[in-house]
Amino acid sequence: MRRNATSAIWSYSLASVLVSLLSLIGLAFFSVAEDKLRRIIFFMVSLAVGGLFGDAFIHLLPESFERLGEKS
Hints:
elongated; 72 residues; 2 helices; mainly alpha; single chain; 81% helix
């Protein structure tokens, strides 16, 4: 049972890091011309907001599972 909990913690940690790495996509757009950047800015902001929301929820998952385990 202890091994299962440890693998779950590592899985959630890895997922959290992967979602956080999405923010590095913005570095690729520093060299894009201004006219192209204006066309894709809405997409970039949407991706950033989605990444932050996903990261927040993934950070909350281990805590919620921990609290569910206490009630059992």
